[in-house]
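USER:
Before I trust my own judgement here, I would like a peer's view. Write it directly below this note and I will take it from there.

ASSISTANT:
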Amino acid sequence: MAKSQSTQTHGSSKKVRPAGWQIFMVAFFLFYMLVPIISTYAFSVATRWDRTILPEGYTLEFYQRAFSASYFTITLRNSLILSLSTVLVSMLVIIPTVYWVHTRLVGAKPLLDVLMILPFGIPMVVLALALVQVYNFPPMARSPFLLIGAVVIYSMPFMYRPISNAIQAVDANVLTEAGQSLGANIFQVLYRIIIPNILPGILSGSLLVFSTVFAEYTLTSLIVGARFKTFPLLLVEFTRINGNVASAFSVISFTIAWLVSILILWVGSMGHTSKAKTI
């Protein structure tokens, strides 16, 4: 008996090695994802890259031209304002709505799931033209406020799904009943109990929304255009002038989005740690 148990223990302790095809699929996926990024980085510093497999030389001139562009600071500021405002508005709208549906209006959850899929089926051109036609009165007409509303609609599924899954995983009904039994009202339950417990879902949704909106071009160009010029508009403008400078803008955009994502994760982890120490 003891021998069979030791045999089972020894067998269970063996590590399962991945099959050859699994290693190949992972390597192919990494290759497929990394090659365009590495190529963009290389093209942004290449003096010439049209006659050989590798660039013939390297230079930082295109980054200097990118940073010295007249609208560089303005477009970067506008993109950050647009992205962060969209994240904030999305959280203010979606978190209470999803919480209320999961705890009070359970029958409306299938309808809400369907509504959250609709932005994927509506072309951005149609959405932009419809909003411009409906909200054609000041101060909304072709304003940054209308643009924020449009990108909130467009990016809403990216915020909804992580938050919905997080609330469902923590069993919001039990947490709500526990908080109310201790004398907390619905707002205190949401702010002090629900939000700290679903913080990973909120961070995931925020990162998805920020990265999506920071690179958004169609809605911005159709709704506000040059009135509120963002970083993608400047990038597309330079694709017609110089591809190397446009690649430099792409690298800068990716790096900024990456740094802001790390900052959001750091702030979220600090807030989660402080909440845990308070509890």
